[in-house]
Amino acid sequence: xGLILQIFLSSLLLSxxxxxxxxxxxxxxxxxxxxxxxxxxTMYVTAITGSSHTISTIIIGIILGMIGYKLSESYHFITxxxxxxxxxxxxxxxxxxxxxxxxxxNKHHHHHHIHVDEIIERRKSKKSIIFALSAAMFFSPCLEIxxxxxxxxxxxxxxxxxxxxxxxxxxxxxxxxxxxxxxxGVEKLQWHFLEHHDKFISGIVLILVGILAFFIKx
Length: 218
Description:
Elements (H helix, E strand, L loop, with lengths): L1 H19 L5 H9 L4 H36 L1 H28 L12 H7 L3 H13 L4 H10 L4 H27 L8 H5 L1 H18 L3
């Protein structure tokens, strides 16, 4: 029961951090304003693009989870020791990337995964814009949660299912809520820290999750 709770809470934490990263929702707000979409249209597009992003992540995650589960049957230390170590190392790598980015002055303020300016300038139809956004999100799977599938696979399909379900609903719903409130004027809040330090925040979460995985037994 302890491991199930740990997997649930860790998946929840990773998903919340993931959904809150500005690169996932700021482009949607920028495009919705440029195209003069109403709130319903914006929520619709956010749900589609968010689902596209999570589906590709879950597909890869399930494959990694299956590999981890097969390995854990013969090599228990892989999912008990190596998987948490990978999470911690990935967190440290994010710290290094954060440090490197802080030393390099970015000439462009917006550095989202989605090329907002290109999409807006082309003035595509709504269907084309949705397709472009969905494709961009689909081919940008979440690396943080992918690695965690290894740890979740320690309890087989139950763990894989918990991660997939929590990640899908929390990410999509989280993106929709943030886009909704940001579109209502909450964007005036200072998102600068999140926007420019997403790797630092992700690194902290990954290290905490990795350390937690060492102490949960099943």
